[in-house]
Amino acid sequence: MSQDWTPDELMEVNAARALAGARTCFVGIGLPSTAANLARRTVNPGLTLIYESGAIGARPAALPLSIGDGELADTADAVVPVPEMFNYWLQGGRIDVGFLGAAQVDRFANVNTTAVSRGQGRPEIRLPGAGGAPEIAAGCGRVLLVLRHSRRGFVPRLDFVTTVGHGTGPGDRAALGLPGRGPVAVITDLGVLTPDPGTAELTLAALHPGVTVDDVRAATGWDVRIARHPSFTEPPTGAELAALRALKSPREEAT
Amino acid sequence: MADIRSLHDAVADLIHDGDTVAMEGFTHLIPFAAAHELIRQGTTDLTLVRMTPDVVYDQLIGAGLAARLVFSWGGNPGVGSLHRFRDAVENGWPRPLELDEHSHAGMANRYVAGASGLPFAVLRGYLGSDIPRRTDTVATVVCPFTGAELAAVAALNPDVTVIHAQRADPAGNVQLWGLTGVQKEAVLAARRVLVTVEEVVPALDPRPGALTLPTWTVDAVAVVPGGAHPSYAAGYSTRDNAFYRAWDAISRDREAFTAWLDSQVRRREGATPR
């Protein structure tokens, strides 16, 4: 049976829903920016979007391509220099949610965005690097991760830990001196994983409509834990899909 | 005091082979025209410093001018990889590129330390990350008051910082606004400073949120309208997102990139090779 939405749209809609109730969100580029802008149009109209380029309270009419498009500054409540952004606003503990993408995650929601090994004697695949992520994940009250679900992305061991999620298990964040709670959810195109309260290991908590537990197992590079009774996420509403598609359309036309 | 000079002469006098050069501008106000002038003059063996290397450093790296890169995020924002950067790191083409890699918070604070005349800056950063294992410019210090262990990052003091700004006055005072990134810190940390501007105006009337760099903090101002393209200058231009997308295909292939460099930079109108 054909559906009215794509797997990416399920991911984006559920990522936006995860921002319900948040006051402030430090927004990474790509999927997190899509989710945060959709949240402002659906579950959380009052959400304050903060971009590392210096825009606090940005209200872009269309999805920005970069984290420094002019509209972010033009529509912001405040524009601050980059050192101030990282030192006063982020390190100062003023931001509720950090929303990040990832190239690779492991079972404790640690993130690699730096380099992937191709094996002995071959050069590693070079990724963009850390950007703001290590300190965003450290300093925000909590962290949301969004990425597509695949064995390339969900790996048993990271080749490089760029950004710490829950380290090697419970207590690691406190031992390292990381002030925030760390990742509270990983939203993918198959479902939502949350860290187990006891072990901090990512556990499949919810499946998107039409997705099975076996789909998730097949797309995860380790023997993924499954909640005793995983729930299903609510199908996207017409309003959510309309808002998401409107958000993306001006940019696609401009291509 | 800043002299108002041609871009060619300012670049030739201020930037030399082997220099450490920071060309800053966080997405906004990236000094592309000055970078293209470096390519035309063939100034080489550079250590390039930038938080986000962006397309501007992809071009300099692909042109073979960079020996070393100090940075924190090397992607084409919203598009994907920087292919020339990747080719240099992964395959050593056109030459190997040594990396000194940080987080944004670390890079920003390295400039703050440089501007402040301090040998290092302190932050809560890099906790649990593998980044410190690949660089010798991150270490830890213990707070003398609380005993807390904190990250220390070495100061950055570029030989030359290059930025693009909206405007200057005839005396060489510079004004920029919108997203101003780390430009103030990068300028005040540098030994020499070149600023390209959209225009010179008789007087700099106040603008909300504008940053002013007094003429005595700048060595040369060059008037280069559109000098940030495909980045932008708020109030003068918008970001050419179509070019950033097109760069993916241009830069993916060595021959396509070289052809682009030859036709769009090296043989460009106004190019004045030494």
UniProtKB/TrEMBL annotation, chain A:
Keyword line: Transferase
SUPFAM superfamilies according to UniProt: NagB/RpiA/CoA transferase-like (SSF100950)
Classification of source organism: Bacteria, Bacillati, Actinomycetota, Actinomycetes, Kitasatosporales
Protein family per UniProt: Belongs to the 3-oxoacid CoA-transferase subunit B family.
Protein name, per record: CoA-transferase subunit beta
One Pfam family, short name: CoA_trans
Annotated organism of origin: Streptomyces radicis
UniProt GO MF annotations: CoA-transferase activity
Automatic annotation (TrEMBL), chain B:
InterPro entries documented for this protein: CoA_trans_fam_I, NagB/RpiA_transferase-like
Gene3D superfamilies assigned: 3.30.30.40, Glutaconate Coenzyme A-transferase (3.40.1080.10)
Pfam families recorded: CoA_trans
Transmembrane segments: none
Record-level Gene Ontology MF annotations: CoA-transferase activity
Keyword Transferase: yes
Keywords from the named record: Transferase
Family label: Belongs to the 3-oxoacid CoA-transferase subunit B family.
Protein name: CoA transferase subunit A
Source organism per UniProt: Streptomyces radicis
